Amino acid sequence: MSESRPAPGGPLGTVADEILVERAVDGDLTAFEALVHRHGPLMRAYTSRIVGSQTEADDVVQEALTIAWRRLPSLREPSAVRAWLMRIASRQAFTHLGKRASDVPLAALDHALPADTQPENVAVRNAQLEALSVALDNLGTDLRRCWLLREVAGLSYDEIAGEMQLPASTVRGKLARARVSIYAQMEGWR
Amino acid sequence: MTNLASIPLECGKTLDELSDYLAADRIPYDPHVETCPDCLNALTALARLAELSRDLISHDAEQLPPAPENWLRTILASIRDEIRAGRSLPIHHADPRARITVTEGAVRALIRSAGDDIDGLVIGKCEFVGDVEQPGAAVEVNVGASIAWGRPFAELYTPLRELIYDLLHRHTELNVTSVNVTIEDIHGFDPALSGHVPS
Amino acid sequence: MSLPDGPDAASDEDLTALVYAVEGVAEIFPPAPVAARIPTVVSALISGSGAERLVRVEAADEGGRRTVRARIGTDRGVSTPDTARHVADLMLERITGDGIVHIQVARIS
């Protein structure tokens, strides 16, 4: 019924997203906390890809979660809460970016990867992820946003179009360009 | 990068075109692309990037150090005062100068916490249908629950309904005409632990 | 602010103690707008630090009538309507003539 991974602590840890959302809508803080445990890390990781700094990302996600609490009663599909949360985080992240000086290039994020003594396939995998990470960092802001909304948050073209105030056909074009750009940079890992 | 994208594959198709085709979910069907080995190889490689992106963010999320200690507390503190009270359920007093109410939120929280106390149950939805603010109005109570895998519903259904009736009788003056309990979900199912599919 | 018939600090604390002594009363909350602004007030009330002269029961003139408001939390094991009525009785005893007593049960624990 649910693909949510278990969260630490308590009987609410294994309960489906829909149940947690319903209780949080009723005002149950512990249910909301369980949602934060479950989806918070992905929101923080995703947001840091957009704003370029984990500390700022953590601030942005705090705001996003506070907004999410208030808007939870308006969520029509409780089971889709993860994508909904990512959307709010994305919006907050771009609002935050807008307040920073534009055209500031994002430094490539410093992600710790496991040591070289890993088995070969894991090392290869990690190198692929690292290459993708660099490729993503090299995408322009718009293309990266499109990419993350589509491939990580799982939004439809229409939903992305709504978020970015663009026609859906433009979104499709941007995604195509982003894909090619990433592909070209990752040539070595095809 | 754009050069690479517009250099044609041996068959003449460019990566740009293939990426567009993929973005359109391969509709309408292109007979050339779908039968050309070079195109299919390229499509597969492009498609794998999407999956890799999801892996990357999941990987990021797993590697992430936990947020600073007060990160969660700040969020909870800022929303705590916005706890939803809901409607006001009237309580009768003989003296007309007294107006007594119980908040809908208080009653919901009570049902939820008492329901959770029943082993194997986690309460989800809890709603009162009817004009709860009108003394004597008929009110239906709809409660949803997630049940622990392996616990038969029949065993839990009656105690839960009785509990809800009791609580509402003791703490409100609602005219409860029915209490409806539905199972919304099952939690705690671990395929590794069981040898069969749950019924 | 104290009720019309108990103008001094001692009456205020007596009243609070009386309300807490009502069987079934678990907590007393400040009136809603205050709660939202000063979270520390609630913990002070619950910890029973009576030395602080905090607003527990709000008495005011609204539309020419004495209006008393109290927000309480009740105990799960005791009838909430009975508890709330007892608290209302306590308030009503202290109002002469016209007036309104609002009791809101905001939590049952």
Biggest interface found: A-B, 61 and 57 residues
Biggest sheet layout of chain C: 4 strands, mixed
Range of helix content of chain A: 55-70%
Can you count the helices of chain C?
Answer: 4
Number of domains of chain C: 1
- Average pLDDT level of chain C: 69
Q: How large a portion of the residues of chain A is in β-strands, by DSSP E?
A: under 5%
Helix/strand structural class of chain A: mainly alpha
> What percent strand of chain C?
25-35%
User: How helical, in percent, are the residues of chain C?
Assistant: 25-40%
CATH topology of chain C: Alpha-Beta Plaits
Low-confidence stretches of chain C: 1-10, 34-55
Briefly summarize what is shown.
Chain A has eight helices and no strands.
What can you tell me about this protein's structure?
The complex is a heterotrimer of chains A (190), B (199) and C (109). In chain A, 66% of the residues lie in helices and 0% in strands. Chain A is mainly alpha-helical and 190 residues long. In chain A, helix 3 packs across helix 4. The longest helix of chain A has 23 residues. The N terminus of chain A is likely disordered. Chain B contains 6 helices and 5 strands. The mean pLDDT of chain B is 86. In chain B, 43% of the residues lie in helices and 22% in strands. The longest helix of chain B has 27 residues. Chain B has one domain. In chain B, the strands form 2 sheets. Chain B has a 3-stranded mixed β-sheet with strand order 3-4-5, covered by helices on one side. Chain B is elongated. In chain B, a hairpin with an 8-residue loop joins strand 3 and strand 4. Chain C is α+β, with helices and mostly antiparallel strands and 109 residues long. Chain C has a single domain, classed as 2-Layer Sandwich (Alpha-Beta Plaits), CATH 3.30.70.1350. Chain C is 38% helix and 27% strand. In chain C, a hairpin with a 2-residue loop joins strand 2 and strand 3. The longest helix of chain C has 14 residues. Chain C is elongated. The chains are: A mainly alpha (190), B alpha+beta (199), C alpha+beta (109). Chains A and B meet through helix 1, helix 2, helix 3, helix 5 and helix 6 of A and helix 2, helix 3, helix 4, helix 5 and strand 3 of B.
